Amino acid sequence: MTPRELKSAIEERLKMAHSRVYYQNATSSAPFPHLVFDLPNAIDQGDPPEVWVLDVDGWDKGVDTAALDALMESVDSVLQRQTLVAGGARARVYRDIRLSPITEDNTELKRRRYTYQVRVYQ
After folding, report:
1. What is the pTM of this model?
2. Which residues, 6 or more positions from 12, have their beta carbon under 8 angstroms from its beta carbon?
3. What tens digit of pLDDT does each residue of 65-87 get?
C-alpha cells in the first residue's frame, strides 16, 4: 500500500463520518465543522507491519461543543479497529490517544484530536 493509497483509503473512510474532510490543512474558507487529517510519520522495522501515525482533528466554531464531540465519536466509529484495503494490501486502524480539548488562540474555535496507529500489512 503506497502512502497515496493509504491517504485515499483514510479519506474515503473519514467521509463516512463527515463530508468535509481535508488533508493537512483546511482552506481558510472551509465551513465548520470539518475534519483535518495528517499522516506525519511512519515506522518500518523491516517486518510487517509498517506503522503509520494518523492524526485526525475535528474543528468547529462556537460555544457549544456537543456537535464537535458527536463528530469525533463518528470518526472513531468509522476508524477504530477497522480494516482498510488498497493496492493489494490491508491496514488495521487502532486508536492511540484521545486528547482533551485543545485550546486555540481564537477562543471561538474548538478542536479535538484523535491519534491512531495504522498498521499496514503488505
Report:
1. 0.92
2. none
3. 899 999 999 999 999 999 999 98
